[in-house]
Amino acid sequence: MRQSVVARSEMRQKQNLSACQKADIKSRANEGFAVLVSSHMPGQACVGCLHPAAATPTGPIPTAAFVSLLSGLMLVAHWIRSLGLEGGALTDQQTFMNALRPEGWAGGAMPVATNPACPVHCTVSRRRKAT
Fold this sequence. Notes:
single chain, Rossmann fold
């Protein structure tokens, strides 16, 4: 299985990479003091499910260098975990943290829900739920 680590800020590029669904994709985003890292395997909700619409910045996105560093470290931690016994399909696909109050986000890891409005139209978002 190929792996892709995405450190780009442009959401459209992340969604385009996610559209192929042939790779384990790791993604990170940060704004202000907030960090979000996510992991997407084929068969799991994709980057488009998590971020269905790209935010349109109205100017420079404020952040601090240590926040970018933290998001990179968290991205590497997700990648290393996927190489271990858990495998690539991590149940807690996304991890959110506020860099100024990391102790307050112990429960900030959770799965990514499938999104019927996914702009990528990934396989998972098109599955029908049994009624």
